[in-house]
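Tokens for chain A. Residues wanted.
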């Protein structure tokens, strides 16, 4: 795992004068060195931290506590971070921050490219060696969360050396909570062996991988939505057959990427009793910590797996038309037993941070 290198303000002008005038003429140079490392800005007051997205902003707040003042620019599930366009006030916040926290991997270029010279930048992508083209939803990765928590503690301790022990103590507390979450994930993977899923958009890819799931989403579909394109009719039909045939245990639905396509897929899942787990990209308002949110989603996914297994007995699989005709996508027919059709959408577990399924909604980010 790559470590992040810190950047500090250069003293090029002083160095140039020393070379031009000779070392003797710069005898007072040593007196000026402490000013770059012990400036009043670094010595006192809460650290001004600006995060591009609230997922990492919440983690910065956990590690920094009362010794940081955190502002998250994208802070609501009603905004599509992929298409976010910052306002002048947002850019001013980034420029005025002492530490800027970004996701990277092409997710928030507007923030990554706006860090002022000399400002410390902490990047999740840099912390784990991810780059543009990789799945950018890094906050759902246990490795990325741990790497970022460590990087934030290091950055805060360098900014306020006198408070280093406080940051270390908070990091230790955070790691205890994360270790408990990892234990829950391990228990899940042992309980649900050979678990499979499909996804309307790969928002929870890292979370599902950490839980031991196999992604059965058609590759053509995933590649199309990953490049913000429309999936081919054949790939969409293949995905429908996968769901209607109950060849996946659940469907992950990104509620911030709603479209007619996702509505069709969630509708197919509802009619065939394949549980739908709603996952937003930004942290919902009813969640306050990244670990807590991930724990709630894990519990919701566990419930979905239980629901799927409970519906196995006596379930009649539903087709989406003749699989061998090579025709276009068809609407799936209703199952023979439709008394529970109103309850086939899996309800969110209390406090899980999910928002209602996007079936019937318009895309808020397009």
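Reply:
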């Amino acid at each position: 795992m790559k470590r992040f290198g810190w950047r500090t303000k250069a003293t090029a002008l002083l160095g140039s004068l020393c070379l031009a005038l000779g070392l003797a003429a710069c005898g007072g140079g040593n007196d000026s060195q402490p000013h770059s490392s012990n400036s009043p800005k670094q010595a006192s007051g809460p650290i001004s931290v600006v995060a591009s997205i609230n997922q990492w902003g919440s983690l910065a707040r956990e590690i920094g506590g009362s010794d940081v003042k955190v502002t998250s620019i994208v802070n609501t599930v009603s905004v599509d971070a992929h298409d976010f366009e910052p306002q002048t006030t947002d850019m001013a916040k980034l420029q005025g921050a002492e530490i800027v926290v970004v996701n990277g991997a092409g997710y928030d270029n507007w923030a990554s490219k706006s860090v002022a010279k000399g400002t410390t930048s902490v990047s999740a992508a840099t912390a784990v060696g991810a780059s543009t083209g990789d799945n950018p939803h890094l906050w759902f990765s246990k490795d990325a969360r741990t790497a970022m928590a460590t990087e934030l503690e290091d950055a805060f301790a360098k900014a306020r050396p006198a408070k280093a022990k406080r940051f270390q103590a908070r990091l230790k507390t955070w790691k205890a909570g994360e270790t408990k979450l990892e234990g829950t994930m391990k228990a899940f993977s042992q309980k649900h062996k050979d678990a499979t899923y499909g996804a309307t958009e790969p928002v929870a890819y890292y979370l599902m991988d950490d839980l031991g799931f196999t992604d059965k989403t058609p590759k053509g579909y995933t590649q199309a939505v990953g490049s913000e394109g429309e999936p081919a009719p054949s790939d969409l039909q293949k995905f429908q057959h996968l769901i209607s045939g109950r060849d996946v245990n659940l469907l992950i639905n990104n509620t911030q990427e709603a479209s007619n396509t996702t509505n069709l897929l969630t509708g197919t899942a509802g009619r065939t009793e394949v549980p739908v787990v709603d996952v937003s990209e930004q942290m919902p308002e009813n969640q306050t910590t990244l670990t807590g949110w991930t724990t709630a989603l894990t519990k919701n996914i566990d419930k979905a797996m239980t629901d799927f297994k409970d519906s196995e007995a006596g379930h009649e699989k539903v087709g989406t038309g003749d699989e061998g005709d090579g025709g276009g996508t068809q609407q799936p027919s209703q199952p023979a037993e439709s008394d529970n059709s109103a309850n086939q959408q899996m309800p969110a577990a209390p406090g899980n941070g999910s928002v209602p399924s996007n079936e019937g909604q318009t895309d808020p980010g397009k």
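Confidence is low (pLDDT under 50) at residues 1-43, 317-366. The first strand starts at residue 47 and ends at 53.
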